[in-house]
Amino acid sequence: MSTIEKDQKIEGLSKRLKYSTRxxxxxxxxxxxxxxxxxxxENYTKFLRLQHIFHLSVAPLYQRKxxxxxxxxxxxxxxxxxxxxxxxxxxxxxxxDEALLAKLTDLYQAIGWLYCSEGSNIGAAFLYKExxxxxxxxxxxxxxxxxxxxxxxxxxxxxxxxxDALSLTEEQEARAVQGAIxxxxxxKKTLAQLAA
Length: 196
Ligand code: HEM
What we know:
GO terms for molecular function: heme oxygenase (decyclizing) activity. The structure is a single chain. With 196 residues, the protein is mainly α. The protein has one domain: Heme Oxygenase, Chain A. The protein has eight helices and no strands. The protein is globular. Protoporphyrin IX containing FE binds at residues 17-18, 25, 28-29, 32-33, 115-116, 119-120, 122-123, 126-127, 187.
């Protein structure tokens, strides 16, 4: 069976997104860990700057009416203000070079970016634990990595169910997958820029 035939057997957009981006995710995971974000406050600051750029880039998507119709409750989810509070907890400003932000317009690609943003909260359980080494927590410095009030898993299951309830054309699904791939690539590119 060719890879394409195998890909076509993956049913449900959430599984398709996960399958199509697993290598991209692992690349980001390795690159983030190699930057040792929890070694000291300086490294953690760089990580917060990275998270800030990512969450500020996706923040407008959470306000888009068409996306709110696809994902009821979407406007309650963005973690931008939590990242900004984390920066302030560390005595940092929230200024940034706007040229670093991603400009997102395509509605269906935006679904892939949202998948990437929301899914990152699942892996954040591990990252949140690591911040405790630096004495940060949900009230100080690591707010954006804290679990959703409903808990990480129920919240993620709800988002996945919303993804799988969308009835997209093949072409629209392909754009969503491309959006998720682009989101991981953007995260990697930004990490490299901040490290330089
Ligand atoms: C060191 C950094 C990271 C680690 C250790 C990590 C780890 C994990 C883990 C353990 C899961 C859960 C897998 C599961 O329960 O099935 C996960 C899921 C996920 N992570 Fe990460 N992650 C990291 C960074 C990121 C970043 C930066 C993003 C996005 C920009 C991201 C996006 C996702 C997505 C979208 C999922 C959901 C996968 C799915 O089930 O469809 N992760 N991550």
